[in-house]
Amino acid sequence: MSDLGYDAAHMLGAVVLLMSFALLYQRRLFSLLNVFTMQALALTATAAWQAYSHGEPHLYITALLTLVLKAILIPVALHRIIVKMKIHRTIEPALGIGLTMVAGVSLVTLSILLVLPVTADATALTRENLALSLSVVLLGLLMMISRRNAVSQVVGFMSIENGLILAAVGAAGMPLVVEMSVAFSVMVAFIIFGIFLFHIRERFDTLDMQKIESFRGESD
Amino acid sequence: MTPLLATLYQILQMLLVLALAPLLTGWVRLVKARLVGRRGPSMLQPYRDLLRLLRKEVVLARNASWLFRSVPYMMFTAIWLAAGLVPVFTTQLALAPTADLIALIALLGSARFFLALAGMDTGTSFGGIGSSREMMIAALAEPAMLMIVFSVAILVRSTSLAEIADFMMAGAVGLRISLALALIALVMVAIAENARIPIDNPATHLELTMVHEAMVLEYSGRHLALVEAASMLKLLLYMALIACVFAPWGMATAGSGVAAALGGVVVFVAKLAVGGTLLALFETSIAKMRVFRVGEFLGGALLLSLLGAIFLYVSRGV
Amino acid sequence: MGLVVSAIAFLFAVAIAGAVAKRLPQASTVVYGGTAAACALIALWAALRLAGGGPDAALVLPVGLPWIQAHLRADALSAVFLIVVNLGGITASLFGWGYERAHHESHSTSQGGSQGHSQDGPVLPLYPLFLAGMNMVLIAADAFTFLLSWEFMSLASWLLVLSTHRDPETPKAARLYIIMASFGTACLLLAFGVLATAHGDYSFAAIRAHAPAAGAAALVVALILLGAGSKAGLVPLHVWLPLAHPAAPSHVSALMSGVMTKVAVYAMIRVLFDLLGEPEWWWGGVTMGFGALTAVMGVLYALMQDDVKRLLAYSTVENIGAIVIALGLALVFKAAHTPVIAALALAAALLHVVNHSLFKSLLFFAAGAMLTATGSRDLNRLGGLIHRMPTTAVLALIGAAAISALPPLNGFVGEWLLFQAILNAPALSEWSLKIEIAVVGAALALATALAAACFVRLYGIAFLGRPRSRAAAEALEVGRAMRLGMAVPAVLCVVLGVLPTPLIRLFEPALRLLVEAGPFDGRAYQPWFWLAPTSAIGNSYNGLIMLVVIALLSVVLVLGIHRKASDRVRWSIPWGCGFDGPDPAAVTQYTASSFGQPIRRAFGSTVFRARDHVDMPAPGDTRPARLSVTWTDPAWVVVVEPLARAVGWLAEKANRLQFMTIRRYLTLMFLALVVLLVMVAVTQR
């Protein structure tokens, strides 16, 4: 593989990771969705670049799927949901932004420390992609636990999916079936979450998870 | 390269940065004015402002000490020297080996240290507000800078700016995650250190939001002229620094003649024009953030630069 | 060597003279003069010894336990630390002489009106003993002498802390100090016990010859970090330090903070680099981690303090953190068989040891001068001292700038060297270490930047602005001896900042002894005013040229401005936010707590649970609004309180032992005897 191909793939993966950090940094729902869109676009570009540089045309389909689903349909739909349901537009962090970011960097360090020794004999690209995608997955999980708002938890969940796709795209020769199923599961999860949101909204008039928990008598 | 020529280049650079700094500020103001639909003042207005300030009398608070009166000179000298250390048109500078990137950052730190002290000297509350906020910003911006140095120096195998520029021009580095993260962090730090939107607004005098302007509120006359000129120099310095590390192309190197150096000057002016336009574009498209989100913003810069340093080891090579 | 021993003996003689003649007016002159002379003698000897080379000076004294004797030996490492200790001793004696006289006078005129330290007899005899103790630690060459001297040093300093017993805070500080000191000594005792088990010989030469097994070595590393670390102030064992150091008279505080912590560093270096033999890679990792934690936490604590001397004590914690980071790096590189880089890191550590002893002494002296002049060490009662105490203000500014690592002063050179060592991380092979060094580098940079904020706060509140109390408004400059005591370290701060290379060359014998390389190995010859240590990363720094260029540019600037610009000056009253009165700005000026607020909000709200409470009266109510700040110390919550509870629980249990019959006591002793015999039987096999 040429140096340029390697560098570009590497850089696009880094953009996906950077967007994960940007997701953690956001305080407003709409900018959260915008950043998520950008992450999906970066993922699209990664998939397309891998398809081009490895000569694996089926990755173009992955790219297209990511583009249509994650960069266009889902953000637009979520945007409409937020407007329609008049959800409070700021995100209530359960953990301070600064602490979340510190935790994020520690998670990235952890995933690097996990991946590097295990994959010492793999090629550099696979190794980095693994480290990057593991980081994206962990950051998505962090996002889900550190934000109270249900919409941001949905976004966190989908960024976990992005991390998985990043790993799938990076590992050369992975069959398309897996990606289809991953994309499909996102769709399913999205529908489930959508219905879930509507129900919550109808029942309790809020999407703040803490308040919902208090209805169940769990919190405090 | 003879030492004589290097000394000449050094003197030329010191004069060049001094001459260009107000022009850059004028350019940024002009572009900003045009972007929001105003005609804006001439690009030469900052020079006129400085001259006007120099001719005015100095009004001092009754209990101002000698420190207050000497700080403008000290900080201007420190920033001037720092600006003279960043290669802008040639890497052959006489002072290049005396201070590396770390010393440069510390030099800027000295300027800030003394200015913050001066802010507290008159004992007014505005000076205190400004100084305390400035030091909070610095407390995060400086480590971020040092982590950027960490990434760059390990990739380039030197902390000397001239060697960094030479190495980058050779183009052997390629695209690196670490460098990309370092660039983003450096831009964030530069915005904060130069008191630009969204951290601070150089045009505001609203007490609750200003940082840098609050600190220098008691200065007037020639002292204010020096302080203002120093901030203009600092803006130029950061642009030159970003250009020197991430886009050094067009600079004269060892062995190239005087013509190449003159070409370097032209290229540098073009780089400044581009940088100024980008800055103006950025500033008009974003809103100022609350003072206490600055911590998160710069904490983000620090963590990004740290992430860059960590990713050094994931990449090949190092 | 005989010279050093006689100088130490002379210190004892001075102490006795001080004890006998403490009522005489000349007593303090004799004590401080004698101490300074002895210290000067030792320092000179050590400097000549380092510069001239030659074999180690050694001596065996027939004292102590009959079959062991006292081994004394001064190698290059001892010599470096002898210089640090005795340089501190000279300046502290100079300052202390003036300080005691000033307080003696104020005491006799105003009968204890100030909350300063009234001149109590005990300081005079104890002061030389304290210095003698520190010197003895440095030249001890067997475990017994070392521990004995260590304990002697601890006790002398403890008594010095107690000498200000009229201060209500002192008993608490002293109690905590003696507990932590005993804990530290116990750890060291165990460490040397483990080191010497293999062969039963307690002299350092024998320990060095028989490196312990891996498990034992790990235990020793842990015990040394606990034992010497508690003396040096490693977080979370630092809790006693900011209470005890400020409680002593200021020149003793300077010695405790600037010098005694360095003796603890010496103990770490001696054991980790010299006695334990070849290090393992994780030793440095652990050491470095503690150092980074200490550096960041220390300076964050310092930023929350309003008491000048306590702030300085916390800043000592931070600087010890930086030194320990350097030690950890040196260990890591030594273990990785890159001795030149290890030498670089160790040179950074030694340089910072010297630097910190200089500027911390200077700043403690300045705090003492403020205390003498205003009777207060509360920042919120100071202010505007630059007008009343011009010389002290200039010297303290040098100290504050040096400790904030500003070029071209000495603090910066130490930091610069340390960063050059940090940049060599890619030479290591362990992934976790490489990444740890990056994180440690970030922590160090953060601590340095926060230290600058901390000293802007200290200097800005105490010396600048307007007086916050009548005492501050009427302060008078301190006497000549005190000013001279501050001037010496201030001048050294500048000189070492501009010309650090000769000092680093002076360290070379010590570095060769410990890591078998020098920081300039393999580099072409450089003039003595350049600093460019060997490293995988290109670098160079020249403080001298920088200073000259700065001076040149300043002259050009001042001349240029004054030829062109208007020279008119008008003096006026600054805007006081609408407050009225003769000095309106004094009401509204920033306090120490307000200055700390942005940083407290950015860092303190999570680490210290710092909270600002605003008590705003209702409209129409004439009561003033109040803002109060509360914070909790995590070290107390996490370490000290559980420990105190555990000790209390143990004491409760042990209490029962007091109410037993004779028969039961005998049973206990008998059982103990049997257990010991069984142990002997087992180990004999």
Outline:
The complex is a heterotrimer of chains A (220), B (318) and C (685). Chain A is mainly alpha-helical.
Give a topology summary.
The complex is a heterotrimer of chains A (220), B (318) and C (685).
Chain A: H1 3-25, H2 29-54, H3 58-85, H4 97-118, H5 124-146, H6 150-170, H7 176-204, H8 209-215
Helix pairs in contact in A: 1-2, 1-5, 1-6, 2-3, 2-6, 3-7, 4-5, 5-6, 6-7
Chain B: H1 3-35, H2 45-55, E1 58-61, H3 66-85, H4 101-121, H5 125-156, H6 161-170, H7 177-193, H8 212-215, H9 221-246, H10 258-284, H11 294-311
Helix pairs in contact in B: 1-3, 1-9, 1-10, 2-9, 3-4, 3-9, 4-5, 5-7, 5-11, 7-9, 7-11, 9-10
Chain C: H1 2-20, H2 27-52, E1 57-61, E2 70-74, H3 76-110, H4 123-139, H5 143-162, H6 170-196, H7 204-209, H8 214-232, H9 241-247, H10 250-275, H11 281-304, H12 308-335, H13 339-374, H14 385-388, H15 390-403, H16 410-422, H17 431-462, H18 470-473, H19 480-498, H20 501-515, H21 543-564, E3 569-572, H22 584-588, H23 592-607, E4 611-615, E5 626-630, H24 634-655, H25 662-684
Antiparallel strand pairs in C: 1-2, 4-5
Helix pairs in contact in C: 1-2, 1-4, 2-3, 2-4, 3-4, 3-10, 3-13, 3-19, 3-20, 4-5, 4-10, 5-6, 6-8, 6-9, 8-10, 9-10, 9-12, 10-12, 10-13, 11-12, 11-17, 12-13, 12-17, 13-15, 13-16, 13-19, 13-20, 15-17, 15-19, 16-19
